């Protein structure tokens, strides 16, 4: 409760707080927080209340502020409009996903992630939503699937990382649950891998709509996603959303099919943010975030490819996290789809490190607990697979074993912050070596970087575990060519 008091003391706009406590602890919690109400007293307030009176507001009336995750830098402070979000959510929920009033919609999410707002948006069509507080994997991996059976959930939303984890631990919900009400499984936060499609249809339910979806906090909705009227293709997002003029562009601004490029939206859409909070009068930060690369055209910062046969979409990673060795641009997902097939590897992260204006690809791997062989033989296997299935230019310059892979609380791999850290650390080391005319030991350079590198706390505030980021400063070979 002390933490809650501290937070509330710094929020002068909050007039009342509602404390929900276990019944055996109510006496020791509610009274200790100033201007608070217990859940029970809140219910009592409504007993003699008059009918609600609704006030008409403009389409652009501010609805809420959302903050981007901060994985690519300082979080953006996005002010969303009421009409735009309402129209967008009703369109996606009803017209595209086919949700109806009788549905029971669940999405495992924190209240700080846009999927919370997306879930609550389901109330606008009259369906029921399920809110859950707790671990998605405890006390057993079946805790969320228990909810499906107990509450009759029809739409189940989660992250790609959660599905991958269930597959990794060989948990099969269909063996322990009926899941008879389940109609759709939605997945976001990162691209859903092809093997995860196999897992869901083999071990969750064979006739569900499996929808990989992608949008962003920037629009609190989707650019591309699932559609109840279209077939599902393994490893692909089904469709571009209705009313969203999404195209894939190359660096010259040409629309391309079957090649990798930037996700752009060529026409305005109703759920664009009104503005960034505390932006200047010219909306400079807003314009810089979306309209710098292609003037007048929204560039989301995602790397994608449209399948010419299915019109499905493959999300390949963040545009600023794309890999570009020797002028060959490709997405991190292309590497992950190969690495994930190695039993020896539990997880991985691939980034590009700038070395004297040229980029080298670095692949970090966390090996499985039962892997005890040397890294040299594993590295050779990995390089051979990438060379064979992609090309020699996709092969990483270095493959390095690490203790852990950094993620946000929502299950997104943190590529950009690691890329910036490694680029800055290399630059710092190079300048120090230059100041000594090269007459210096590697050990001294390593110590200098450790003592003088200043980690940008704001840039990594979304990291679940700070040590997952700082570990990269302790890899000496990344400080030298």
Write the layout of secondary structure elements.
Elements: H1 2-9, E1 17-19, H2 26-29, E2 36-38, H3 39-45, E3 62-67, E4 77-81, H4 82-96, E5 104-107, H5 114-120, E6 128-130, H6 143-151, E7 155-159, H7 160-168, H8 173-176, E8 184-188, H9 194-203, E9 209-212, E10 214-216, E11 221-225, E12 239-240, E13 246-249, E14 261-265, E15 275-276, H10 284-290, E16 298-306, E17 313-318, H11 332-339, E18 345-355, E19 358-367, H12 375-389, E20 398-401, H13 416-435, H14 442-452, H15 467-470
Parallel strand pairs: 1-2, 5-6, 5-7, 7-8, 8-9, 19-20
Antiparallel strand pairs: 3-4, 4-15, 10-11, 11-12, 13-14, 14-16, 16-17, 18-19
Quickly list its features:
481 residues; alpha/beta; Rossmann fold; GMP Synthetase, Chain A, domain 3; 3 domains; 5-stranded parallel β-sheet; 4-stranded antiparallel β-sheet; 15 helices; 29% helix; Acac_CoA_synth
In summary, what is this structure?
The protein is of the alpha/beta class and 481 residues long.
């Amino acid at each position: 409760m002390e933490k809650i008091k501290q937070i509330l003391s710094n929020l002068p706009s909050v007039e009342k707080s509602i404390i929900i406590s276990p019944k055996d602890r109510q006496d020791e919690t509610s009274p200790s927080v100033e201007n608070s109400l217990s859940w029970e007293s809140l219910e009592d307030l409504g007993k003699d209340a008059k009918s609600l009176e609704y006030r008409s507001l403009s389409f652009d009336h501010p609805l809420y502020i959302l903050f981007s995750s901060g994985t690519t830098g300082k979080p953006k402070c996005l002010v969303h409009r009421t009409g735009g979000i309402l129209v967008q959510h009703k369109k996606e929920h009803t017209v595209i996903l086919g949700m109806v009033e009788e549905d029971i919609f669940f999405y495992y999410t924190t209240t700080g992630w846009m999927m919370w707002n997306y879930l609550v948006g389901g109330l606008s069509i009259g369906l029921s939503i399920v809110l859950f507080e707790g671990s998605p994997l405890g006390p057993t991996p079946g805790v969320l699937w228990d909810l499906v059976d107990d509450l009759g959930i029809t739409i189940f939303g989660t992250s790609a990382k959660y599905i991958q984890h269930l597959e990794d631990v060989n948990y099969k919900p269909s063996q322990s649950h009926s899941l008879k009400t389940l109609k759709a499984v939605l997945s976001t936060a990162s691209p859903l891998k092809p093997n995860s499609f196999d897992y869901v249809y083999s071990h969750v339910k064979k006739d569900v709509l499996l929808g990989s979806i992608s949008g962003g906090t920037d629009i609190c909705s989707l650019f591309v996603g699932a559609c109840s009227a279209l077939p599902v293709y393994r490893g692909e997002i089904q469709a571009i959303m209705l009313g969203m003029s999404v195209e894939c562009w190359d660096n010259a601004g040409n629309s391309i099919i079957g090649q990798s490029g930037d996700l752009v939206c060529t026409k305005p859409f109703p759920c664009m943010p009104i503005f960034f909070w505390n932006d200047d009068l010219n909306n400079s930060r807003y314009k810089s975030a979306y309209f710098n690369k292609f003037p007048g055209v929204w560039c989301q910062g995602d790397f994608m490819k449209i399948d010419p046969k299915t019109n499905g979409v493959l999300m390949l990673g963040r545009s600023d996290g794309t890999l570009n060795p020797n002028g060959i641009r490709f997405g991190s997902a292309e590497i992950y789809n190969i690495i994930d097939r190695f039993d020896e590897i539990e997880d991985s992260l691939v980034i590009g490190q700038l070395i004297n204006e040229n980029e080298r690809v670095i692949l970090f791997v966390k090996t499985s607990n039962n892997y005890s062989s040397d890294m040299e033989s594993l590295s050779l296997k990995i390089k051979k697979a990438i060379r064979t299935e992609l090309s020699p230019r996709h092969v990483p310059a270095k493959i390095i074993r690490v203790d852990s892979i950094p993620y946000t609380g929502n299950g997104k791999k943190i590529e950009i912050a690691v890329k910036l850290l490694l680029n800055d650390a290399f630059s710092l080391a190079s300048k120090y070596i230059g100041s000594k005319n090269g007459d210096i030991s590697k050990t001294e350079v390593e110590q200098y970087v450790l003592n003088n590198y200043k980690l940008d706390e704001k840039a990594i505030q979304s990291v679940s575990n700070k040590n997952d980021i700082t570990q990269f400063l302790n890899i000496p070979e990344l400080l030298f060519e």
